[in-house]
Structure prediction request, 676 residues.
Amino acid sequence: RGSEPGKMAALGLGGDGKLFEETVNSDRIKKLLDPSPSATAGLKEKIQGMKHLIAMMAKGRDVSEFYADVVRNVVTKDVELKKLAYMFLSHYADHSAQCRELALMAVASYQKDMEQHNALVRGMALRVLCSIRVREIVPIQLIGAKKLMRDMSPYVRKVCTLALTKIYSLDPTVKEDLVDILDVLLNDKAVAVLSSAIAAYSDVCPDRPEVLHRHYRKLCTVVADLDEWAQITALNVLTRYARTQFTDPRRTLSDADKAALDAARAARSAKAKAKPARRAGFYSDDEDETDSAPEDFAATVEDDASSLDADHALLIRAAIPLLKSRNAGVVLAVAGVYHYLAPRSRAHAEMVGRGLVRAMRGHRETQYIVLTSIVKLAGEYPEMFNQFLQDFYVAASEPASVKFMKVDVLASLASSTNASLILHEFTRYVRDTDKAFVSHCIRAVSRVAAIVPDAGGRVLRGLMGLVKTENSDVVAESVVAIRQLLQQGGDLNESVVVDLARMLPGISNPTARAAIVWIVGEFQDKAGIAAMAPDTLRMLAKSFRAEDKEVKNQVLNLAVKLSLRQPESKPVALLCQYVLELCRYDLDYDLRDRARQLRALLGAATSADGAAAASGGKARAAAVVLVAKPAPQMQRASTGAGSTDHQFGSLSFMVGHTAAGYSPIVDWALEASSPD
Prediction:
């Protein structure tokens, strides 16, 4: 059997790990941290006490009561004790007013430690100093930042960069001094410093593009070397900068520009044909060895030189390789560069689409965020994802939110070439047990029929089958979708309307019933529909009192339309008069007002002396009631989260409303400028 230390080491509790398991009372810690000469605790005991505090702090315990004891241990020559003390002080520097007052007692020590030989001590001293949220010491913090902005250690310069944001949030009036420091740090050669400098620029002076003028080309060159989160910030910053310095590449080109662009593309096409085919590497992915590789994309950007500034193209070329990043946030940032800066071309679209589809295969949270962006892009540029159609097929194990968005993407990608595949896939989805998902699929099917009119007949037959189902919500969505398809125009199938009217007694959903009544009243130019419309009105008049408000409104419309289209029919006239009387005494005042208006239009209202109203009432009613209705505008993408006008990829874009700290995307410059 092993020894006790061996067992602790095997359990991961050896060394300092055991501190997380031990419990030490407050008096014991105060004795260990006592810096007075009469104290019995030595250097090792003080270090042990600090480790206990750090362990308790890591476990979430509030140990700010020991702040005064730790402050008194800052003045020490031992580097390890000083590091532990600074870790504690930086964590609790702004915990309370008492901690801030105690931190001020050691300001002189922090300033002195900023001249230490140990780079870690210098950096932590500035970090603690700038963590003190007392406005009166801002000048001292500025002096420290200016002193260390040219430090030999990249770590210290990085801490100095991060301190700028803290100083600015404490006192925005020193912005000009911070901009001068930031200008120096943006010229730094260390990638870690540049990462923090770009973040500081985004927080301190995002409205000062002139600060980036002389650093723009350098940032475009090194963006691939930054850490992943800095790449997201850098791409967003450079996107906003490019919008203020360059002109819109999608603007209308002159004839000379178009000729130059066509010549460049023809030259590239000839060069590509002469180039031998490249074999895929043994360890390569098939999808990565296509003709849309990054270097080919860069060549395409060069082809657009007639419409792109050289520095504008530089940013796009620098961003494209980041589509293969393992961080989905970076891929979304590159998609934002494409969305806001790049000219529209097939090469652009396929590269960005491939990157987004790859990022979509991550965790569920990542999948939801990426899909929200894909829904928007697919609605605007469906060519981006046409070749990835099967990646948006719905799996039974996926959460409902992901299913809904994938259905939206499939509907947005519909075209004459793939409509049959998409409709076949939707045929499987409408059999799902989740009726909310089925209703969403029905709305998507109607959008497919609107995008591809040739598929309207097949969609209409499928929707008629769904009307016969037992679920009222599915029936309602199906009838509404049929109404929208009939409004789109084309050859009207008379039997569809007749079948819907026959199904009316068995349908209980108010929305579905109202839609059917509207259809019967709107399409009476067909003989078969006109013949059965009076009988439909008779049945509805009998059940009028039990109908829902929206159904009553449509019954009233049907009665008026029938009386105008069949003025010679006495039964129709009597039914219309009966419905108007029912509406006159209905409990809903909106319905009563509408009935009074239509009665006046029909000329059925009487004057004060009992005489009939003007004979031209029916003509006026026909001009109002029987006017041609505009077809509904069917959007490619649904209107949900991610469908707003907020900046692509932002939090406001995700939640669908303006979040705190949101800044809208800036407009294009009227004239291009140079970063020189």
Residues 255-274 form the longest helix (20 residues). The two ends are 73 Å apart (CA to CA). Residues 1-14, 278-299, 301-306, 604-614 have pLDDT under 50 and may be disordered.
